[in-house]
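S1.2 Input.
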Amino acid sequence: MLALKLKGQITSDRRLVVKLPKDIAPGTVDVIVLHEAPAKAPRRRARRKPAHPAFGIWAKRADLSDSAALAERLRQKVESREDSRG
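S1.3 Output.
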């Protein structure tokens, strides 16, 4: 078995064109194609979605320093109120 490394060209109609040395006899061959993949375009970073307009509206309030305590108070208030819809 003879192994050769040759340069070739793939045409637009998907044919492989290779110039063979004259000392290669006609016959069946196995072909391995090593094709250099084109460079991929760099992926663009996803843009961040703008925050909801209400985000951070309580950030500057000094009376709300403990958000966990506030959430607990609000839960207790909701759970203890009487529903007027019966």
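S1.4 Remarks. The radius of gyration is 36 Å.
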